[in-house]
Design brief:
The complex is a heterodimer of chains A (262) and B (393). Chain A has 11 helices and 10 strands. Chain A is α/β, with parallel strands linked by helices and 262 residues long. Bound molecules: adenosine-5'-diphosphate and magnesium ion (MG).
Amino acid sequence: MAAETPAPASAEPLIQVEKFNYAYGDHQVLFDVDLNMRREDVTALIGPSGCGKSTLIRSINRINDLVESARVVSGQIKIDGVDIYTPEVDVISLRRNVGMVFQKYNPFPRSIFENAVYGLRVAGIKDRHDLEEAAERSLKAAALWDEVKDRLHQMATGLSGGQQQRLCIARAIALQPRILLMDEPCAALDPIATARIEELIHQLRGQYTFVIVTHNMEQAKRIADRTAFFYKGKLIEEDDTMTIFNHPGNPLTESYITGRLT
Amino acid sequence: MSPVPTTENPFAGDNSGIQKRETIARWALRVGSYIVVIITVAIMLHIFIKGAPVTFQSKWPFVNTQFLTELPATLHVIEDKQGNHYETDVNGADAIKKKLGDNFRAEKTISYSGGGILGPIVGTALLVIVSVGVALFLGVACAIYLSEYAKHGKFLELVRLAILNLAGVPSVVFGLFGLGAFVLTAPVFVDVPADRSVFAIPLGFTTLSFEGWDTCVLSGGFTLAFVILPVIITASEQCLQAVPQGFRETSMALGATRWQTIRYSVLPFATPGILTSSILGIARAAGETAPIMFTAALAFKDKLPWQKDLPPLPADASIFAHWDQSVSRFLGIFTESVQALPYHIYTLAAKIPQNEYAERAQYGSVFVFLVLVASLAASSVLLRKRLRAKYRW
Ligand SMILES: Nc1ncnc2c1ncn2[C@@H]1O[C@H](COP(=O)(O)OP(=O)(O)O)[C@@H](O)[C@H]1O
Ligand SMILES: [Mg+2]
């Protein structure tokens, strides 16, 4: 899994989205998206509501398979060169390698500990010691350990919003995935909790390949190496974050980041 | 703005009649609600006033133990020349008559009204256990499939329609169905198929014969299960739907399979609601008469289901020493026909001549019945509260 020798910088991108077309029933929402995401990068997806950011990010771990009408029309998403929509790919092991954090922090109404080890439990790990170790490791990685170490067996729903969201990050990284997908992870949080999450992403960058949807331009500037701008289901442009914000190549991008496009 | 002096109040109510209609509507609705409350209270009071004296008494232990622990029996009432009445059972009758000698004037016998109602209580409890067990198992399985696995579409709509229709089927129809399906044709393992067997499949060591389960707890319980199945399926499905979709997505995003997701992150949170729906099921199953008339219930039976003329197990026996015998005797309870409270009440009210003694037995039974159903409901509510407190989102 994650622990392997770092790939040379020139290696081919970890996630490759190629001519990706996606639809809900007859309603197509992604058109010919071509996007590469490199192993060491934090990639931000931006764009107005309904432009398909969530749909794309949820296609990378195939959680959108749960939506009954959702289907890939054509094109591919490859991780490490493997098309993840081929029948040979087991979605369970795909999802163990591609963690996800949702917009609304949603820990299970169980104890903090049980939340942290949920992914390991369903993977069949029973050994108490292993589970405790993993819980500690992931809670530490999510910068939550000090706040909860004395109440691991209390309900997770008693934590503050920001703590709950960090717990959701902890339970995703407990599985030691390679990729972390985050769909507006701070949308429901106050500025201080948001700052802590951003700090956390800074600490974890490099260990995981981050793909983050955000509505917050400043946030994208602060955390992302690369930024991709979507509009009406199409990828308008993708570049270095600084380039996107300082010298956007497309007038649409410019009007979006300056707040003239909604 | 400077205040403009005006004689008119801009907020005065208009007198176009809107106010009046509002008042009438509110009162009509209020009166309707009061009528419902009054009738409910009247029913409860009526049963309490007439039934409580049969069940309770002023002397220690304050509960009429005879009424709760004895089987129904024929009541003998003997009258002497002074007009005194003596109530007794068949054995006591002769002794009293002898004692009275010439003073004896008349003897009346009233069927089923003496003794107690332990038989019907036990029978109803067994029927409820079997039916709620079967209905919960089938109903929850069906609800999980409909809510978590089945794809939306024509077929699903058809299944839902079928379930709704099942809820509208009169209970006597279920009774006839149970008679045909469970009493007469359900499969059993036997050594030699009976003559009435619809068909038999020899399996070598035994034969699977479709000869029915006879009138017994099992037949009645399964029949009742189908009566309450629609309630349980519909309610369970609603409870499953009420669990946030986010739990499912998160669980699956963490690499859980669909079944693991259901098992750990959907069912636990739907359970309180499902239990609530089974309360309704219990009350319904306990109260139905028609489905058990042909499948399980007898008007009169002088034995409890476990009182059979079997040789006692050897004296050394712990139940484990004769495990298979103990098990088969335990299961034997469910292959007995029983008395049941609603059917017993029906018998007392409609099948025997009415007099004060029969009425007393009726109201006593009704009262006990209500208390039983109410306490079942109360315990389920408590259980649900505890689960709710544990799993809240
Ligand atoms: N479950 C769904 N069923 C049908 N259409 C959907 C569903 N989810 C999203 N869509 C549609 O797909 C489009 C893109 O939505 P989404 O990916 O959520 O956009 P974003 O995250 O950028 O706001 C929208 O037009 C939306 O209406
Ligand atoms: Mg979105």
